[in-house]
Amino acid sequence: MSATIFYALDTRYMKRTLPFLLALSFLFGCSKEDYPRVEYKVSSSGSAAIAYTMVSPSIRTENVSGSWNVSFRHSKGASVFLSAVNTGFGTTSISVYVNKELLYNQSTSVPGGLIEISEVVP
Predict the structure, then answer these.
(1) Helix, strand or coil for residue 102?
(2) I want to staple 64 with a disulfide (CB 3.0 to 4.6 A). Which of 30, 68, 80, 91 is the partner?
């Protein structure tokens, strides 16, 4: 019986303190330096088919024309992937920025040309 009472008291205690501890770990446990902002940018004077990954390893695809970008936080040492196929006439460029600093850039003006950036967040 005493084990049941202890469990009930412990459960109530955890329900009150767990959200508080999670909030503290979120505020103080990880800094922006540990999770830099990654930004993908695509610019196409025609059109392009792009593929990219964000935090999860699943590949997302989109068809773009003109300018396109997306940003997210990612851990240091994690992989980033962005590719584009120039599906029209003109030039397609892809860029990866980390904390607003250009790290990787590629472009093509060949119709059907494939460009790809597959790197690690420094």
Answers:
(1) strand
(2) 68
Residue 42 shares a structural domain with residue 84: yes
φ/ψ (deg, to 5) at 8: -65, -45
Are 106 and 72 spatial neighbours (Cβ–Cβ below 8 Å)?
Answer: no
Phi then psi for residue 28, to 5 deg, are -110, -15
Pairwise CA distance, residues 103 & 66, whole Å: 21
Tell me which H or E stretch contains 9.
helix 2-29
Query: Which tens digits make up the pLDDT trace of 46-81?
Result: 999 999 999 988 999 999 999 999 999 999 999 999
* Residue range 10-34, pLDDT digits in tens: 555 555 655 554 454 454 555 666 8
Whether 20 and 64 map to the same domain: the answer is no
